[in-house]
Amino acid sequence: MKVGELEARIWELEGIRVLILAPSHEEVAGYRYRSPAGQTCRVAEWLETRVRPSVPNHMVMVLQGNGRQPQGNVPLHRLRHTYG
Questions:
Q1: What's the structural domain count of the chain?
Q2: Where are the extended beta strands (E) located within the chain?
Q3: How, if at all, do strands 17-20 and 60-63 pair?
């Protein structure tokens, strides 16, 4: 899977925007999840357990609806709400 495809897959499944700091055509591991993370899961936990294993050698930024980065302790339901 290419970086750009992984970003799109995460948005499609999780409803969360991420920016992976790597060339969009670079090959990375796929996103192995089939259902979204729970609403009470925190951003930092979600990032470490679900996203970083796919791109261990790259920086990943989580973006809110306004383009800013959320705090790591924000629950995913609050983050997802920012895109509405």
A1: 1
A2: 17-20, 60-63
A3: antiparallel
